[in-house]
Amino acid sequence: MVTTYNRRSFLKISSIGLASAYLAACSVGGGDRNAAEQALRAAFAQPINDLDPHGPSSVDESTLLAGRLIYDTLIRRNGDKLEPGVATSWEQTDPTTWVFTLRDDVTFHDGTPLTARDVKASLERVKEAGTAQSALWTSVSSVEATGDHALRITTEQPLGTMPVNLTLMFILPADKMDSEGFFRKPIGSGPFRVESFTPSDELELVAVDYWNGKPKLAKVTLPYIPETSSQITALRTGDLSILWPVPPDQLRELEGVDGIRLETVPSYVYYFNWFNCGREPFTDPRVRRAMWRAVDVAGIVKNLFGAGAEVMTAPVPSTVFGHAPQEPYAYDPDAAARELAEAGLGDGFRTSLMWFGDTGPLADGLAQAMISDWAKIGVTVEPQSLEKAEWLRRLNAKEFDMDLQTNTVTTGDADFTLGRLYDSEADRMGYRNPELDTILRQAHENSDRDRRSELYSRACKIIWEDAVGIFPAALISTYGLRDTIDGFEPAPSNQPDLRGVTLAT
Amino acid sequence: MKSKAARFAAGVLALFVLVAVFGPLLIPYDSVSTGVADRLLPPGSTRSDGAFAPLGTDQLGRDVLAQVVAGSRVSLLVAVTVVVVAGLLGLALGLLAGYYGGWLDTIISRIGDMQLAFPSILLAILLAGALGPSLTNVIIALAVTRWVIFARVVRGSALSTRGREFVDSARVMGAGDLRIMARYIYPSCVQPLLVAATVQVGLTMVAEAALSFLGLGVPIDQASWGSTIANGRDYLASAWWIAAIPGLALTLVVICIGLLGDAAREGADPAKAVVR
Description:
The complex is a heterodimer of chains A (505) and B (276).
Chain A: H1 7-38, E1 39-44, H2 61-70, E2 72-73, E3 75-78, E4 81-84, E5 87-94, E6 97-102, H3 116-128, E7 140-147, E8 150-155, H4 162-166, E9 170-171, E10 192-198, E11 202-207, E12 219-223, H5 228-237, E13 242-244, H6 251-254, E14 260-275, H7 285-293, H8 297-305, E15 309-311, H9 333-342, E16 350-356, H10 363-375, E17 380-386, H11 388-396, E18 402-408, H12 418-421, H13 434-445, H14 449-465, E19 469-470, E20 473-482, E21 485-486, E22 502-503
Parallel strand pairs in A: 1-12, 1-13, 16-17, 16-18
Antiparallel strand pairs in A: 2-9, 3-4, 5-6, 6-8, 7-8, 10-11, 11-12, 13-20, 14-18, 14-19, 14-20, 15-20, 21-22
Helix pairs in contact in A: 7-9, 8-10, 13-14
Chain B: H1 4-26, E1 45-46, E2 52-53, H2 64-100, H3 102-117, H4 120-131, H5 135-161, H6 165-172, H7 177-213, H8 225-232, H9 241-268, H10 270-275
Antiparallel strand pairs in B: 1-2
């Protein structure tokens, strides 16, 4: 027999059912929210390919970003100042010797204590690795662990940039760092430990009891989202809590959106357009200066990047130590054409410009806008938008006429770019100037700030006036943040410190 | 071409061909010249130099209408050249395979089968990536992926024709292989070949756009519908016209080619022909 219900009892039964479903949903939802309160999802615009802080990716922003969270350094950078990290104090006892005292309460994520032996092994590893970072350490002749928590570094020549360079030198556990597969789930002594890592996809981190206080977040996930439009959507829907850097053209999609705020900071990243000074016709500085005058740098930067970049006034961004403002090259195509004529190229010439699309925001646009301006003075430039690996190969082999790219002054000190790239020995773009070499080497060896600052201002002037390259735009990093984020400090290096960040309820 | 739809499609395609051939003369597109002061203007805006931009401008201040017109020429050029090159190659190999059979057929057909086992766009990406971006390389990459389709169609027809009485009688009369293939077998392959070609023209256009979208197609200083769509994909929310207009043009042309192809197939169907 079929049971029948009248209307009233049917409503009663169904409302009880609905109410219990609702209550169940509430409790589940509440649970989710508690977990979400401590778990942060933050996306950097570039993928993290490798967690080896000494390997081929050692100066990639994404690897450094992860390194700052997972590992420790002897010295940290805080704004303009250097402050103690694992090292409590350091001293230059004579021009070629540095002595460090280390903290005795630092442990790796597996519980083993961090000692001077680990620092020694890490420094030797990065020196031998043959990567972009190794170049910073070529003059180091010996590293000695004089005690469990005392370290002495000896260099062949004086190394004034030692403390700054050490802000990039991540410390790994000496006994484990060379074991097979270590970097799939590396162990460090930083504020977060690695929970899981899939290269170019996702890095999951969990907070640990750090010597400098436990981070307020329990968990940080750093996913990589390839498409700009998907990144923006993820931030808008709340899937991401932090996204950086937001490309200039996408700012208007986020401006005034409920629940999202934008914070900007001038970054260490800038564009340069190098001339291959070893190739005709760029061996002649008059031609290089004419090329610069022919480009409406101020107009292009303003129209293309808007609030996303500022016009550069020196070969390094204004945020960097060693920046000295120079006289800007005024946009003057007529003067440029005259200068070309003086150099015997009155009829213009053909050349090429190479770049790769992902080097920075609006790279294609910047390249094509400059090519357009050069066409107006009769210089035909073949655009060569390359694949990254091919671009890198040709850059290292100096197989280019002009090269447009972004560059990051990773240490925030002019030595990292000026000293590393413009030295005749480095021979990166065929420019040779013994006077500049002397200045750069003095600045590299000196540890007196005022003296170095003066030397770099002379170096800036030479590079600028000889137009080794065109220096159009220094990027301004924009961080897109959900309103739930508190305590976030935008970092010019694009490597924000997430320790103080909290998620509001 | 009986149906209204087919007539409409033919009209649209004729217009498209006219635009591709003569459009760039009327609305010149200079890919080198950019105007960053006039970037991202919506359709119907006036540029700072007083020129009218009926379909807006892209992120470098280039006119979208001029870009779409210039892109139509690239699309047409690539599609027609690829179909002609791949069609001729497929015709020759298909005739050889179908007429002679035996080991020659085995080799040609198995190479074709192997190639079909790859998704054709993947093969095109591989080739275009290896050859580097240029219009010629796009044509080569796409032609290599398309010949199999034509070869199969031709082989099928040749296979069914070579046993027919008129072929046998030609052979008895002492006609050479080449003559038989050209005079007796080839005519029976033309109709299916043309039907396959119309369909392939549309598919090739899409494939070219896909390659250009991925940055493997035409070089950055040439306009193509695919590359214009790729340029606009980061601006879908703020400047929809960059990607939407070439996207619409591509969709319309491909649908019209499809309609025309259907009409041609119906016309070529022997069963239908009897009824008619």
